[in-house]
Amino acid sequence: MDVRILGGLSVRENGVSITPTAAAPRQLLALLAACADQVVPVSVLMEELWPSGAPRGARAELHSHIVGLRSLIAAALNDARGSGRGTEDGPGAADGRTAETVLAAQSGGYRLDTGGGSHDVWQFERAAGAGYRAMEAGDLARAALRLGEALALWRGEPYAGVDAGPGLRAETERLEASRLSVLDQWVEAQLGLGRHAEMVPELAVLVARHPVNESLHAQFMVALLRSGRTDDAVEVYHRLCAALGADGGREPSARLRRLHRSLLTVREAPRPRVPAQAQGSWLRPLRLVPVVAGAPA
Q: Which backbone phi and psi does 40 adopt, to 5 degrees?
């Protein structure tokens, strides 16, 4: 089974889609896919579909959705059997998988069995974990590579196009927070590798998408500073202050305020004078970029 969540929901059994178009069974499949290879209690499934309270006949309706999903799974397995994909491209009917074992009733709930297939959230978490370990080991090049691989798995918002109850909302928030954490470390690795000028356009887009994210703004300010654009870095700070003020009257953190003071110190510091005889068209003065206290190395 191939599960894709980081974008629109896509679940395929042996290459055949089993993703329903109707809203309720689609939502049900999304939650089962979020907890793939684990038993999801019936009570959790019912709360997802009816967060305000299950109506009379809810269990029968839930069972009807399960039957519908199993019909899609059975059709995919039969298609695989007829085309031979069950033995060539992965697990299928040839290894005993049936609709009832793929979507199995177990211990008061249901379990979506991936059969050892792929899941983009698992891939994301593995790549992110490798990137974090590389950061801790000081291997910035490997960290940037693996964290970038993790971010590349995202095709859009998780569970896009799926109605969300409490379970899917909580999972979406968890995934978005994890993505921001990986993004923060990926940028940190890129800056640590000295790719400040390269990161300026990327960070400009990121701070526009996350107007009150202090970490991204701090990284943007550092990238601008080390690209010789101190005035632009100060302007980024002012925009962040305005956004935080509009977002509940908040103020920048102490770290951001220290970085801002450092920027002002750099901007107001007198530039070193260069002897006139050294100012030929082929010889330009060296630009001395001070290290900012608290900024990424």
A: -105, 115
